[in-house]
Amino acid sequence: MNISKIAIEKIKEFEGCRLQAYQDAAGVWTIGYGHTYNVRQGDRISQWYADDMLREDLENVERQLTELHDPEVLHMTQQQLDAVVSFVFNLGIKRWQYSTLRRLIMYGKPKELIQKEWMRWVFAGGKRLPGLVKRRQWECSRFFE
């Protein structure tokens, strides 16, 4: 199970890269390409470290997905895996694990229901964000390629 280079580049595009810690739309301290673990105000990193953290973060997401033991996740196409890893990287494994989106996918529900549910995940800090709309559109499109 490995995310594609296409997906990595899209995640980089969606996340953007900041080498100095900042608070994201939800108020979480973030650095690099959306890295949030153990980030504090005033932290600074190099571009090399940002790339390395992203690689590690994506490997961690893949490991977490594998540990759920969902047969659907373990047998996804490359495109489906790319979409789900992007979603989980953005929102976290717990949100994925208990989401209606995951259940719809697991139970093989119709494409239209899955697409509609996917597009509900476009809010941060109580606001609908255009960047999240674009990201969810790409993920949903990639999932059904």
Short summary of the structure?
By secondary structure, this protein is mainly α. It has helices at about 5-15, 45-65, 70-75, 80-90, 95, 100-105, 110-120, 130-145, and strands spanning about 20-25, 30, 125, 125-130.
Question: What are the defining features of this structure?
Answer:
8 helices; 145 residues; two-stranded antiparallel sheet; mainly alpha; single chain
Instruction: Work out the helix count.
Output: 8
Number of strands: 4
Strand order of the largest sheet: 1-2
Rounded to the nearest angstrom, the distance between the terminal CA atoms is 18 Å
Describe this structure in words.
With 145 residues, this protein is mainly α. The protein has 8 helices and 4 strands; from the N terminus they run H-E-E-H-H-H-H-H-H-E-E-H. It has a two-stranded antiparallel sheet. It has a two-stranded antiparallel ribbon with strand order 3-4. The longest helix has 21 residues, at 47-67.
Strand and helix layout:
Blueprint: H1 5-15, E1 18-23, E2 29-32, H2 47-67, H3 71-74, H4 78-91, H5 93-97, H6 100-106, H7 111-118, E3 123-124, E4 127-128, H8 130-143
Helix pairs in contact: 4-8, 6-7
